[in-house]
Amino acid sequence: MTETMKYLKLCKYSFRFKTNIAFLILFLAIGVINELVTSGTEYLGGFYIVLTSVYMFQFIMSLSMSDMIQASGIGRRIHLDVPVMLNVLLSTVLYTLLVIYRFIMAYLHPEKATQIATSLLMIDIMFFVLFIYTGFVYKYFLASLLVFAFTFVFVVGGSNFLIGLPGLVITMPMAAIIGYVAILAGAILQYLICKALVNKPISQRAFRGIFKEAR
Length: 215
Hints:
This protein has one domain (about 1-215). The chain is globular and about 50 Å long. The chain is mainly α. The model is unreliable at about 210-215 (pLDDT under 50). The longest helix is centred in the middle third of the chain and has 28 residues, at about 80-110. It has 11 helices and no strands. Helices cover about 80% and strands about 0% of the residues. The chain has helices at about 1-10, 15-40, 45-50, 55-65, 65-70, 75-80, 80-110, 115-135, 140-165, 170-195, 210-215.
């Protein structure tokens, strides 16, 4: 826990920290408001909430270009276990809060329970895709965007097909368990991707502002 707090404190030295924190809060607020308005029956609010977890990964990755961090001897860890660890931490916390809220909504609105659970399943899939996407994006920016778009459309389309199968009923416990499995599986793949690409240079397009300031 002490080490985790140390890395969390380091985030304030990341590139454009205040600006990114503002966007994190904005996305989180949009997600929470949407969840409250829709009573958890749609996945858009959950998507915005999930999206905020990406910022934790971004904070740490931008630190990897700091001379101070490189000189400290933790430069390699900044590319590997640290961003994955903090991303999993924030994702798990946010997802748990989302699951608790949706269980409450399903209890208060039993007629909407299946709809609430189904939209949560879509959020589970988005979590998994985002974990893989963040593993690539800071090394292969443009390629990762194309892969993300293709994967997102393919996975969401396939999920809609499966959800629409006769006799298949998505329940809240089922969706919640799948979500935690998606976070764990996504984190493992994210780590393996980061490990495979650890020696690749950071994409200038991913952190264009840093490279502009360095000129």
